[in-house]
Amino acid sequence: MDNDAFLTLGIETSCDETAVAILSGETDVRANLVYSQADLHARYGGVVPEVASRNHLAKLPYLVRQALADARLEVADLSLIAATRGPGLVGPLLVGLSHGKGLAYGLDVPFIGANHLEGHIFSVRLANELFEPPFMALIVSGGHTSLIEVRAFGQYRTVGATVDDAAGEALDKIGKMLDIGYPAGAEIDRLARKGNPSAIHFPRPMAASAGFDFSFAGLKTSVLYHLRKHPRERPEDVAASVLASVVEILTKKSIEATRRYHMDQLVVVGGVAANTHLREGLTRSGEERGILVSFPPTSFCTDNAAMIAAAAAFRHLRLDERHDLSVAPDASLAF
Ligand code: KG4
Ligand code: ZN
What is the pTM of this model? Predict the structure, then answer.
């Protein structure tokens, strides 16, 4: 079969997005649906795993049917089924994984239990199919802040990670203090456009430390103390000052890591990679240092299933992988 006729259905349910996508070949997105449950969880100020699982279960069959309709395909046309197997919330993962395995079994096609982090890395390939390693990848999302050395697709080495909160998690918790809804990253991005980034000097935890680990819990706590002392602080100034700190830490560490590992490309993926301040800051810093900094389009930064299908299609077509249907969810799956 030529690669373009190879059709992968991807399913992503690791957190609170129910996502289904269909890919033709390795990078051609034929359908890409993301149903966000954010409104359901907003009143709790965070994701409630049981609520997320039940909602994935209710939405998934309809999203699969709609994705097939969008791509003008029948279910029998599919060549490979992929579903995220971790990391993530175990209940939500189990729903997507079981649905995917059921489809693969019924259709008698191969199955891949995908790594969500590898999916994020592949999101850059959806935007540019010619994009090739070696590169340094900064995965920065609600669950992760990691620097990964990518010598080849499929070969990963973590060179740094957060020791406490992920950057997106810290932004979401700061959003809760500002009472601006959940998740808060995109709203903080917007508010910061109208704020003064020098209004408050928040700490830059671990920015000057040796090595490539991150820490964002201290930043969150210092925002809490600041707001207790200055309850009338403009949210715009808080947002701009918080982002000044987050952007400085992420930029410094990821540019340094790229140079230390003798790479000239840095790829930034995950929900926080949608941040306009980070995109501007890192691009500028990369230009100054001769490093090409790439970001996927915003719609591929936040959780989606096209990236899951892309990682799985690569593993199947290039590495000849397929997984046994006994594959189980793994909440803390690493590389
Ligand atoms: O990758 P993602 O959709 O899910 C995880 O795998 O965690 O990332 C979600 C995170 C949330 O913390 C959200 O607040 C953050 O990405 N986020 C942003 C922006 N859009 C989403 N953070 C900063 N600026 C944005 N524009
Ligand atoms: Zn993610």
Answer: 0.96
